Amino acid sequence: MTGIRRSALVASALALALILPAIAQEAAPDFASLEAAQSAANAKPGPRTVPGRAIPVPSTASPQLQAMIAAPYRVPGWNADPKDASAWKELISSRAALAAAAAKAVREKLGVSMEATQIGGVGVFILTPTEIPPANRNRLLVHVHGGGYVFGPGESGTGEAIPMAAFGGFKVISIDYRMPPDFPYPAAMDDAMAVWKEIVKTYDPHNVAIFGSSTGGGMTLAMVLRAKQEGLPLPAAIAPGTPWSDLTETGDTYLTNEWVDNVLVSYNGWLKRAALLYANGHDLKDPQLSPIYGDFSGFPPAILTSGTRDLFLSLTVLTHRKLRRAGVEAELQVFEGMSHAQYYFDPFVPESKEAFTEIARFFDKQLGK
Amino acid sequence: MTGIRRSALVASALALALILPAIAQEAAPDFASLEAAQSAANAKPGPRTVPGRAIPVPSTASPQLQAMIAAPYRVPGWNADPKDASAWKELISSRAALAAAAAKAVREKLGVSMEATQIGGVGVFILTPTEIPPANRNRLLVHVHGGGYVFGPGESGTGEAIPMAAFGGFKVISIDYRMPPDFPYPAAMDDAMAVWKEIVKTYDPHNVAIFGSSTGGGMTLAMVLRAKQEGLPLPAAIAPGTPWSDLTETGDTYLTNEWVDNVLVSYNGWLKRAALLYANGHDLKDPQLSPIYGDFSGFPPAILTSGTRDLFLSLTVLTHRKLRRAGVEAELQVFEGMSHAQYYFDPFVPESKEAFTEIARFFDKQLGK
Description:
Two copies of one chain form a homodimer. In chain A, about 40% of the residues lie in helices and about 15% in strands. By secondary structure, chain A is α/β, with parallel strands linked by helices. Chain A has an eight-stranded mixed sheet, sandwiched between helices. In chain A, strand 7, helix 7 and strand 8 form a beta-alpha-beta unit. The N terminus of chain A is likely disordered.
């Protein structure tokens, strides 16, 4: 790319970025001009050229979800670029402190108790709702948290396990697996599998499901792949939410929803850095890191969740399709306007409760008693 | 909006539209500059500001689907603006001639025979596959075609019915309902219901499903609403594909996928004009025109289909969620990179066959014999 072209692009992009928010409050962009420019720019086969524009908050989400959709990009956050291990640790622990405090508040509001313990030598948190209905007494959910294999240590990783316990009436074991910078791949998977091996000794695996979102969704799939490989019992159902099933930038919505998703914003922010930190030189396309490249035959029934603005919408639907092509019973739910994994950020948003209630209904249908 | 601001916007948009395709062939946009501009433009709650950019064809679709994704905007077509009834008729019949020829070729390749007849005074086409498996001998599918309530008269509306008959092994009756400009709302619905009333006299409704995409998806939903209202039997299952369930520009992907979807491109092309022509002054939010505003309780099991680039992705997922909240069994399938309704444009694309095979599997599960 020549310097002149790049300057022109940046100038145009900046001009648009500055002008559009002001315009959006007054009137829609000039359609006739866009119509001509866009038709000209998309008159031949090739990449899709789209114009810069301001996209309003949809009226079709609940008011609470609308507020989440309207929220600014997560800054600092989406483009964090820690330069060394100590900078990573500082970022991880500052975010963990906030998330742990939020998790505590949610536990109290939803009446979920928490106990820290160890299973198979690995730290776990046991989340127990006020009441476990009789049908769920012998059932267990295993949770692997999200956070790009770097965020979510300790209590801060339990955010998603709490509404699942509360809305589903399930006992949940959330795995506090080791993470980079100190413990890159395969530490996280080794820990998750150590817990799984212990659990299937005391629970009938027909009564156990595994779930988790984002990185936790990828790990859920990778755990089933590894259990298959090692001849271990499989869970009776899984709920990989918006799974990070491909750690490379492969999948259409990595690009169509770039700059639209206000949670992850772009693959080329912290996300790519976390992928490389975790892989630690290992092939990103190894199915243990990017389970979309694995063999899904024999997988247990699955329910997948995403949103129309989710950077991982493609990963979710590609995973869903690949499960279906492998003959696996698999359901898909997609929420209007949602960016990445927003359904577990605040369990009091109506769409969040809906998402967890659907997953609970699916588990209830699939699990033995 | 002031004239100066609008000029600046148009100049920027045009500059981007002209520059980006050239850049795309050389290198990715300059991420660091976009990162700064985008973070600044999205630092406060409000509309999402996105930059103009070139989005490559995803490697995650089949080669045949990749070719469809790479295709130019449908020009002339997406922004057609017929000025009077005779201009509409000319456009409709020129498109119909092409579509009818394509449908004939597909029938021959898939071994589906066609018979034109009338049911309840309404023209229909009966599509019959070479072989109907014993389980399907007493079953029937009723098809309502897409085309914005204006396109698809006669044989040209049978495109989607052919792969459904062939891949599912079902007898299909495709309704050639009346359309504008001569016959606006409610002629299309009156015709569809006249056929339905006759069919339930000779077929056990437990053995009958209704399906259709886009406008046909909206009509499928509206037929169930009207059957409920009139106390008629309901079908045993429905497959509203990427349903035009809201004729107003309501739904997030009307905007997030504007300029991305290369089939419809924008609500503000022919689509909006067709909505107004059909409604003929009637309220666009009447549930008979926009069934998303109707009461879905008591609906039969449904399977919905869309794509990640579909302008109607939001309409599809909003309809799916509303069905689920009404307690209806409802499945969702979303295909990578697909624009609006592309799964029925060419039944020889692997994802097309997959979509119809899933719908057939769903019907097989839901219908009596």
